[in-house]
């Protein structure tokens, strides 16, 4: 049915295009001068049909589920849902839905069967109604567009106005996305802080999110002090940057100043491969190769190394960040004007001196911006730490110990659990909010620095 | 100035300075060599890591591209598999009975021995036999030759991953099991054909049966959704910002927003999808549609930035010429600039999609890491994607999944190289200098 609605819309769009075009052609054949080309008359009809109906269809499909659910809940016999938590209500809803799809486990109560029947009717009514509305709307719009075809009708301007509107909409999707992120995070975070105190989250040193979900379940009480999680993130990011920054900068310096053209042409794409490897692959690499190697090395010199070390996760993340830093530094070094380089060389400085005393200081703002972006990436990186770092939050800065990170906690808290009414899942959103704010601030700062620096020489 | 100094000091004026420079030159050159050495060391480190990465994946993954099979002559016993009782029936008993014929010394009446023996075969063997018989019931009562995969421990043994010289207690197979396997090998029943199941099977708990079909199809649906949404939106946004937008606070704000969005951690997009798409709009969990939507929002900034660069590269003379013959601003952009910028836009889009293909974290949050044993038939079905499948397999305790994971990564990297190859080809084919 849904597909039929889309097909109908598509057909109507095409039909509107050809009808209006033919009408415009007829006017021209009568010897009159059209203001706009026939094509634009056709496009005008196509767009006036396509855009509003398409939007309507999407909205309908998006809202149909929630609305039908609510209607169904309201239609249940009085008192069946009294005193039930949201989780239990969701469970009943899911059961009714699975009955309506024909998968029945055991013998459900009669009212559930009735509700399932009603759900099927609601859904059928909704799609039928949708198809009818689309059909009527399409005809009305085609008719309205057809009536406007006239010699003096400024179809081109109208079409351009619509396309401009569409493009503005496209551009604002970025803003909608940001609003969506902020709204989603804020909404759930606010719920979280109504259950857990803000100061406990921010300054507490114990992170044990395993709380009992049902009353009769045995689990830890739950503690949401996020300091050890933040600390773990910082430890891993520090390890990553101690690997990535020197290697990345030296790579950039060598490629920018010393490497023969041919070497540069080979190395650059190799670095790009390193940058294009998915992070899940790096994570697997960390647990398959790096972590056992570190462990073995640690044992050979008599150190006790945990199986999931911050060192393993951090150093692999560092490898991932090398191309990122080196390309940023390379850009920054290339942006330094040739005159500075020539001037230093003319004064008798060696190439190394030119690089270290002239070019590098001049490029420092751009490089710092790049490093900051790398920091924000290291903080926000998920898969490597999920696979290679630990799960238990510890107050430690020892990179040989197992630590956890913000992203790890977000993922582990949310896997397999979607009801947003207990602090365990909501904690993930609070962590996400912290992550978003931290990376956003770093990114803005980094982009500022990079941009400001660029302006000096441009 | 120069005249005066040269007059005072004669023809070789800066003797001391030249001397100092000459004396320090060796030290300075040495410093330069050291800096270069550090640079080379840094590059070698990066390349070495890449080589180790690829090398370790290939060395642990190549063996998953073959699969050990046993060729058996099976008598489809009408007593065990009655024609009336299909598809139920004692297919496993049929298999172990026919296996028993090769081992006359094993007492098949003992259930334990019979079970030990049939452990050679994969758990899926009885199902493939069942499918054959159900498809062609006339096989009942006949003796047929079938080729079925061995179970994972025997597969590891055949590939030399179970070492025969380790202590029996520390080995996954005891001596008797190895002896049985060797006997089958002597009879010429063991073969190691190319493992087509890796691409044609869906996921399974048993490594010897697990394949990537579900993940590949799921990734395909997610990428298709991602492309259908992010490509038009990205181009529209880029054209507006580059060609039409007035330079004011609003367009500045949009631009800053897009740049920031490009740097938001991927896991935050996962949270967005979970809360908004699944929580508020009630879209299906684990569906490639939701995954694709999420990936589209992540890919959007990449496509916008690439498209703007491509539009910028079209010289103003093209625009002026078109405007000069009376085209409207829209006509200039849509009929002249956009077609010329298209190769660049496509290149950027493919690179953005390649990134989306490898993205894992947001897909984990929307539940695309579910264990699903059939390939999705539409974007609304529950599914996994390639990177999440890799994540699931990497977590599996069975030894056989280590090589599967590496093999899956090689397949994923293969897709990525393919996509990047297309992008490079497009760039080179359509690159032009104005």
UniProtKB/TrEMBL annotation, chain A:
List residues traversing the bilayer: 42-63, 128-145, 165-187, 223-253, 273-293, 305-325, 358-379, 426-447
Q: Name one GO molecular function term.
A: phosphate transmembrane transporter activity
Pfam entry (one): DUF3708
Q: What InterPro entries does the record tag this protein with?
A: MetI-like, MetI-like_sf, Phosphate_PstC, PstC_N
**Domain ABC transmembrane type-1 positions:** 230-446
Localization in the cell? Cell inner membrane; Cell membrane
Please give a single GO biological process term from the UniProt record.
Answer: phosphate ion transport
Q: Which PROSITE patterns match?
A: ABC_TM1
Q: Does the keyword Transmembrane helix apply?
A: yes
Annotated membrane topology is: Multi-pass membrane protein
Q: Which UniProt keywords apply?
A: Cell inner membrane, Cell membrane, Membrane, Phosphate transport, Plasmid, Transmembrane, Transmembrane helix, Transport
Provide a GO CC annotation, any one: plasma membrane
Q: What's this protein's function?
A: Part of the binding-protein-dependent transport system for phosphate; probably responsible for the translocation of the substrate across the membrane.
Concerning its family, UniProt says: Belongs to the binding-protein-dependent transport system permease family. CysTW subfamily.
Q: Which PANTHER family does the annotation name?
A: PHOSPHATE TRANSPORT SYSTEM PERMEASE (PTHR42727:SF1), PHOSPHATE TRANSPORT SYSTEM PERMEASE PROTEIN (PTHR42727)
Know the name of this protein?
Answer: Phosphate transport system permease protein
Which lineage ranks, top first, belong to the organism behind this chain? Bacteria, Pseudomonadati, Pseudomonadota, Alphaproteobacteria, Rhodobacterales
Gene name, Swiss-Prot/TrEMBL: pstC1
UniProtKB/TrEMBL annotation, chain B:
Membrane topology classification: Multi-pass membrane protein
| KW Transmembrane (keyword) present | yes
Q: Which residues form the ABC transmembrane type-1 domain?
A: 216-423
Molecular function per GO: phosphate transmembrane transporter activity
**What are the BP-aspect GO terms?**
phosphate ion transmembrane transport
The record lists the membrane-crossing segments as: 33-58, 220-241, 261-283, 289-311, 332-354, 407-426
A Pfam family the protein falls into: DUF3333
Recorded hits in InterPro entries, A to Z, give: DUF3333 (IPR024573), MetI-like (IPR000515), MetI-like_sf (IPR035906), Phosphate_PstA (IPR005672)
Per the record, the gene is pstA
Family according to the record:
Belongs to the binding-protein-dependent transport system permease family. CysTW subfamily.
According to UniProt, the name of this protein is: Phosphate transport system permease protein PstA
Which NCBIfam families does the annotation name?
Answer: 3a0107s02c (TIGR00974)
Checking PANTHER family in the record gives: PHOSPHATE TRANSPORT SYSTEM PERMEASE PROTEIN PSTA, PHOSPHATE TRANSPORT SYSTEM PERMEASE PROTEIN PSTA-RELATED
């Amino acid at each position: 049915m849904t597909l039929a609605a889309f097909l109908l819309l598509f057909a109507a769009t095409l039909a509107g295009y050809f009808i209006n075009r033919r009408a415009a052609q007829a006017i021209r054949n009568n010897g009159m001068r059209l203001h706009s080309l026939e094509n634009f008359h056709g496009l005008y009809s196509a767009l006036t049909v396509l855009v509003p109906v398409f939007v309507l269809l999407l909205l309908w499909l998006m809202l149909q589920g929630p609305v039908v659910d609510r209607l169904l809940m309201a239609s249940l016999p009085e008192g069946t849902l009294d005193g039930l938590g949201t989780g239990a209500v969701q469970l009943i809803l899911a059961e009714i839905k699975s009955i309506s799809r024909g998968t029945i486990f055991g013998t459900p109560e009669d009212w559930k069967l009735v509700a399932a029947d009603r759900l099927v009717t609601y859904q059928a009514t909704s799609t039928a109604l949708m198809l009818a509305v689309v059909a009527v709307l399409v005809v009305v719009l085609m008719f309205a567009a057809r009536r406007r075809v006239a010699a003096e009708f400024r179809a081109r301007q109208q079409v351009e106005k619509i396309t401009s509107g569409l493009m503005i909409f496209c551009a604002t999707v970025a803003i909608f996305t940001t609003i969506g992120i902020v709204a989603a995070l804020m909404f759930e975070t606010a719920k979280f802080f109504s259950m857990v105190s803000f100061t406990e989250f921010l300054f507490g040193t114990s992170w044990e999110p395993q709380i009992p979900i049902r009353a009769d379940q045995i689990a830890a009480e739950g503690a949401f002090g996020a300091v050890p999680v933040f600390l773990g993130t910082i430890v891993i990011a520090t390890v990553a940057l101690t690997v990535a920054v020197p290697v990345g900068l030296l790579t950039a310096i060598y490629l920018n100043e010393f490497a023969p053209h041919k070497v540069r042409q080979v190395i650059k794409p190799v670095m790009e491969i390193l940058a294009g490897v998915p992070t899940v692959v790096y994570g697997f690499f960390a647990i398959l190769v790096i972590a056992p190697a570190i462990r073995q090395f640690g044992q050979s010199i008599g150190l006790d190394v945990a199986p999931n070390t911050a060192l393993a996760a951090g150093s692999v993340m560092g490898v991932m960040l090398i191309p990122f830093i080196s390309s940023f530094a390379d850009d920054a070094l290339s942006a330094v004007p040739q005159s500075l380089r020539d001037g230093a060389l003319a004064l008798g400085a060696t190439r190394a001196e030119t690089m270290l005393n002239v070019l590098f200081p001049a490029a420092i703002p751009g490089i710092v911006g790049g490093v900051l972006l790398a920091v924000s990436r290291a903080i926000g990186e998920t898969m490597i730490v999920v696979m290679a770092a630990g799960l238990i939050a510890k107050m430690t800065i020892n990179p040989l110990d197992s630590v956890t990170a913000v992203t790890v906690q977000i993922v582990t808290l949310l896997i397999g659990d979607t009801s947003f009414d207990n602090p365990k899942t909501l904690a993930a959103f609070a962590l996400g909010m912290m992550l978003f704010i931290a990376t956003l601030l770093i990114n803005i700062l980094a982009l500022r620095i990079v941009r400001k620096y660029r302006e000096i020489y441009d | 100035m120069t005249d005066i100094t040269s007059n005072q000091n004669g023809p070789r004026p800066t003797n001391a300075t030249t001397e100092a420079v000459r004396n320090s030159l060796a030290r300075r050159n040495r410093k330069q060599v050291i800096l270069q050495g550090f640079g080379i060391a840094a590059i070698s480190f990066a390349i070495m890591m890449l080589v180790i990465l690829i090398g370790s994946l290939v060395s642990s993954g190549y063996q998953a591209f073959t699969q050990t099979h046993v060729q058996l002559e099976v008598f489809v016993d009408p007593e065990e598999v009655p024609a009336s009782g299909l598809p139920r029936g004692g297919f496993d008993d049929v298999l172990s009975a026919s296996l028993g014929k090769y081992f006359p010394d094993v007492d098949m009446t003992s259930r334990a021995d019979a079970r030990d023996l049939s452990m050679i075969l994969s758990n899926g063997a009885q199902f493939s036999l069942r499918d054959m018989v159900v498809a062609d019931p006339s096989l009942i009562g006949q003796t047929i030759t079938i080729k079925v995969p061995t179970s994972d421990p025997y597969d590891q043994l055949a590939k030399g991953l179970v070492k025969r010289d380790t202590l029996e207690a520390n080995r996954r197979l005891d001596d008797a099991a190895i002896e049985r396997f060797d006997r089958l090998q002597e009879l010429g029943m063991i073969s190691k054909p190319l493992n087509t199941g890796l691409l044609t099977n869906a996921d399974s708990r048993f490594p010897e049966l697990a394949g990537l079909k579900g993940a590949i199809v799921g990734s395909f649906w997610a990428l298709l959704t991602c492309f259908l949404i992010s490509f038009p939106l990205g181009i529209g946004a880029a054209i507006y910002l580059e060609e039409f937008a007035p330079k004011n606070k609003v367009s500045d704000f949009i631009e800053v927003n897009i740049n920031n969005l490009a740097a938001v951690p991927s896991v935050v997009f996962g949270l967005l999808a979970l809360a908004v798409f699944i929580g508020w709009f009630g879209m299906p969990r684990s569906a490639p549609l939701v995954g694709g939507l999420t990936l589209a929002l992540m890919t959007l900034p990449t496509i916008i930035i690439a498209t703007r660069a491509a539009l910028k590269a079209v010289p103003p003379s093209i625009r002026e010429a078109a405007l000069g013959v009376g085209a409207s601003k829209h006509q200039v952009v849509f009929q002249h600039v956009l077609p010329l910028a298209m190769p660049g836009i496509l290149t950027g889009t493919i690179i953005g999609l390649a990134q989306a293909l490898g993205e894992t974290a947001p897909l984990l949050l929307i539940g695309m890491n579910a264990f699903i044993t059939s390939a999705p038939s539409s974007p609304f079905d529950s599914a996994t994607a390639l990177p999440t499948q890799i994540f699931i397999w990497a977590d599996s305790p069975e030894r056989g999944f280590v090589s599967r994971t590496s093999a899956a990564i090689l397949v994923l990297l293969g897709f990525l190289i393919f996509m990047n190859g297309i992008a490079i080809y497009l760039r080179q084919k359509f690159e032009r200098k104005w």
